[in-house]
Amino acid sequence: MWRRGIVTAVFAVALTLVLFFHSDVPNRIGNLGSLLETFLPWLGLALPVLLAVAVTRRSATALIALLLPAVVWLNLFGGLVAPKSSSGGDLTVLTHNVNAENPDPDGTARDLVAAGADIVALEELPESQQPRYARDLAAAYPYHSVQGTVGLWSRYPMSGVRPVDIRMGWTRAMRAAVSTPHGPVAVYVAHLPSVRVKFDAGFTAGQRDHAADALGQAIAAEKLRSVVLLGDLNGTMNDRALASVTSQMRSTQGAAGNGFGFSWPASFPMARIDQILVKGVDPRSSWTLPRTGSDHLPVAARLQLP
């Protein structure tokens, strides 16, 4: 019983090392570290497989070794699995990458209005579809601004609207001060560059990483106390490349969501790359919405302002 399952035990120890030392996996070769961290929670799927093998082999050694990755995985992600949402909050925000090739922008706009958010951020807005979204959202959101391919719609007045330079050569980020009944909130909308997984180049994310650094600098310089970032960051909270942003802001999903809140791809969500991050604001709940005509799911959060 003790000698059987040595190979399974070795795999369990290896999985433990990958989970525990994921931040030490280098990015020098194909951004391997960021690629691993993007899908890190899915390594947990190896646990039931290894458990089944250990039970089949009747191996006490493998079962004991399997406790190691199980404990590390729960330490990393157990808090996300447990429900954390609470009642209350005075501002509901929503963000959605609507997809430039969305076959039903009018239906998507109706779904977003039905969600009842106070502030809606849209990314990947093609110029040809911007008038349609403006028309469909106008009744519910009298204040709006589109900067490049990102836009912000609000029930409350906006001021200080400007594009944010994230070093891309065209506008994919913006900032506005929204005058809510509970005080002003600086709202940032961003769509960071896409990443690609290539056989010959690995996880190509250089432009995304530079844009994230620029966005982090802009948020760090923000004068208002309450700050909300809405957008498609093309990366998860585990991805070290987004540290310039994530190190100074909280994820509403991590703080007040139930489950992982995966948002992409909409047909079978595997990662949460659509984010709502806050600073100086208390998240009360966070959730994903049903699928629209986009390849991303909308995500929303209920916030308590100071």
Shape from CA axes? Answer: elongated
The percent range for strand residues is: 25-35%
In what order do the strands lie side by side in the largest sheet? 3-4-2-1-14-13
The number of E-state strands comes to 14
SSE string: HHHHEHEHEEEEEEEHEHEHEEE
Unreliable sequence segments: none
What integer value in Å does the Rg equal?
A: 21 Å
Helix content: 25-40%
Largest sheet entry = 6 strands, mixed
Average pLDDT taken over every residue? 93
The helix tally amounts to 9
Helix vs. strand class: alpha+beta
Q: Termini separation (Å)?
A: 59 Å
Give a nutshell description of this structure:
With 306 residues, the chain is of the alpha+beta class. The chain contains 9 helices and 14 strands.
What features would you highlight for this structure?
9 helices; 14 strands; 306 residues; alpha+beta; 6-stranded mixed sheet
Task: Explain the overall architecture.
The chain has a 6-stranded mixed sheet with strand order 3-4-2-1-14-13. It has a 6-stranded mixed sheet with strand order 5-6-7-10-12-11. The chain has a two-stranded antiparallel sheet with strand order 8-9. It contains 9 helices and 14 strands. The model has no long low-confidence stretch (mean pLDDT 93). α1 (6-20) packs antiparallel against α3 (46-57) and α1 (6-20) packs parallel to α4 (60-81). It is an alpha+beta fold. Helix content is 32%, strand content 25%. The longest helix is centred in the first third of the chain and has 22 residues, at 60-81. α5 (105-114) links the parallel β1 (91-97) and β2.
